[in-house]
Amino acid sequence: MLKEDQSTALEVLKKYFGYSTFRPGQDIMVQTILSGRDALGIMPTGAGKSICYQVPALLLSGITVVISPLISLMKDQVKSLNEAGIHAAYINSSLTERQISIALQLAAQGRYKIVYVAPERLESREFIWFSEQVQISMVTVDEAHCISQWGQDFRPSYLKIVQFIRRLAVRPIVSAFTATATEEVKNDILCVLGLQNPRVLVTGFDRQNLYFGVETSKQKEDYVVRYVKEHASDSGIIYCATRKNVDMLCERLRAAGIEATRYHAGLGDVERRENQDDFIYDRRPVIVATNAFGMGIDKSNVRYVIHYNMPQSMENYYQEAGRAGRDGEPSECILLYSAQDVMINRYLLEHKEFDSGMQQEDIEAIRQRDTMRLRTMTNYCATTDCLRGYILRYFGDTVGKPCGNCSTCRMEYEELDRTEEARQVILCVMEARERYGINVIAGTLAESRRGKIQEYGCMKYSSYGALKQLGEVEIKQIISWLVGNGYLSQTEDRYGLLRLGARARLVLSGEEKVVIRIPKKQTETTAERGKRTSVSVDLNSRGYELFEVLRTLRMEIARNENVPPYIVFNDRTLVNMCSMVPLTREEMLEVSGVGENKFAKYGQRFLDAIRTFTDGKKEKLYFGDGTQPQLVKAGKRAEKKPFAIQKEQAAQFPYADKYRAPEIAEALYALVNPDQFKKVSGAEIFRWIQAEGLAGEQYEDGRHTKFLTDAGREKGILLETRISRKGTEYLDLYYNKQAQRMIVEHFMVMEEE
């Protein structure tokens, strides 16, 4: 069947595609096909799946038929092939019957080596005639997950592929490719397609150049506008769940002066094509779209993908997010999450249309699987574990240490003892006799009086209002964590009823504590968050001097009290002090964030510092009344430099017997001008320590624990027991003066000789 020797594959690759070597996995797939063996390749977006079948197609003696689900995908592939000097054609509904007839006649005459076809066309009279006239050396199934009813994009028309292959006089090589497939979907592809002695290649799902982030901003539109302006020179995709959101967000971006375009099925064919081309050709760097956009679009310089709404499944998310950084350059994937996203997706799934020929039993099975996928996606948005690790585990890939390149890895956490809260949740589920889902249980515990709570009689439970001090959002976070760690479970139907898990009794009996990692910025209650106000005062240079004085004092107090500095006063409170310049107790109590208790503990020391700095006189330490300098235009703020210190600043570092990483970070940042340098964090210091092989973090028994290596001990790092405010013991790293000096030198700018 081979037209040329297998060794010529590299020559074809170089001649037509311009590459001297194959990417990892491509050479295995090419040689497998050229040896006459069936193949299944599960390779992430950007791995170059098309090369795996296009190179063999040019070396096989007959024609390769590529079955593809989307018109845009076919057009893009065929255009790229033709540009490369390879004759190819596509057969789909975008052509007239006469155009299809001409294309098939030319293919039968040997003009085309590769013919793309929609699965619906396989049973047409013209295509059956064509398949009887030519030698089909290979049938390639692109987006192969569409053949599995357990896949996220099941298409009944893909089942026609099996009948088509069986009708051929000589069975061709069958190859299949997809970017996202769980173990179950992979096995379904192999079974349904009937692959014979196939070579199965899973190259791994990790895309190390991608940063993954989940943001819970309530002002999503403002976030998107700000982000796009800050990345004005970059190309990006913004995905929305509905056409309405696409139109709204696109208009908002345009109103902000951003060259944005849009894409969804409600637009006409001409407008969709023009908008798509504007984005692909960089005439408009930003496109706002539904998930109808992107499959088969090989735009390599997409620097960011933002999901305005949470997708319905991890498969959809990873496929769409994976369109960023196809060229291997650093790129960002940001998911903006809100509870409303879950409601929108539930509505869309409930109104999902199915093929009229599908059995009701199959429809119910798919609905159940869709519900589980949505639940997995929701848990992804709430996890405090490494996001990359969460994704890789879902697809059955190997997971190593936390990646250090996602929002959860870059965030600082504290561990809180939530044993009593978990006990109340479990008791509430028991009182409800496992009949309700997360919304009812959380509402009951939060003392909600909404209709369903009253109708179900939940107000009579002894657990009613037991956690009202937390609020429903935080209660739901605790419940989600309990589900994810085996204390509770959920039914697999769309109701997601909460059931007691295998570990629930351990909490009730007191045999096991529940310790949950909470982002430091989220440790305050919902009520406290609602009282916060933003500070919009711009401090002048003397104001920043006072701010540094107060921050140094805060660091000293925090170290002595063994608490995080923000527990003393947060930055907003310090800025407020600088703008108001309080000189008396009464004035200090007017500062945002200073209450009676805080003043009793810390207020007098801050008053003394302010009086000393100002010689006891009121000063204007912020811009105003003609003293404000020319401001940089919105979205054009000067980029802060990576954190670094000079030798003279390093000499001022306040060494102590031992510090924790966050304390070292605070002390370091106090040495520089915050307007010029990015903030350094304890998490950044710990990541460097990990990279140096001095310490690490592992996940054991449902919690993260730090460990120390021999090399770390030699450098002066200590592993000691700490006790949280809730009384939970855990291990943490401390750094003696030797280790502190090592860290300071790491951030110190080396002088040129």
Number of helices: 32
Find the CATH superfamily of the largest domain.
P-loop containing nucleotide triphosphate hydrolases
CATH architecture assignment name of the largest domain = 3-Layer(aba) Sandwich
Task: Please state the average pLDDT score.
Answer: 83
Largest sheet, in brief, is:
7 strands, parallel
Number of DSSP strands? Answer: 21
User: What is the spatial order of strands in the main beta sheet?
Assistant: 3-4-2-5-6-1-7
**What's the number of structural domains?**
5
Explain the overall architecture.
By secondary structure, this protein is α/β, with parallel strands linked by helices. The protein folds into 5 domains: 6-202, Rossmann fold; 210-409, 3-Layer(aba) Sandwich (Rossmann fold), CATH 3.40.50; 412-524, Arc Repressor Mutant, subunit A (Orthogonal Bundle); 533-614, DNA polymerase, domain 1 (Orthogonal Bundle), CATH 1.10.150; 647-747, no CATH class. The chain is built from 32 helices and 21 strands. The strands form 6 sheets. The protein has a 7-stranded parallel sheet, sandwiched between helices. It has a 6-stranded parallel sheet with strand order 8-13-12-9-11-10, sandwiched between helices. A two-stranded antiparallel ribbon has the order 14-17. Helix 7 (160-167) links the parallel strand 5 and strand 6. Helix 23 (541-561) packs across helix 27 (596-614). The longest helix has 23 residues, at 360-382. The protein is globular and about 95 Å long. The protein starts with 8 loop residues before the first helix and ends in a 6-residue tail after the last helix.
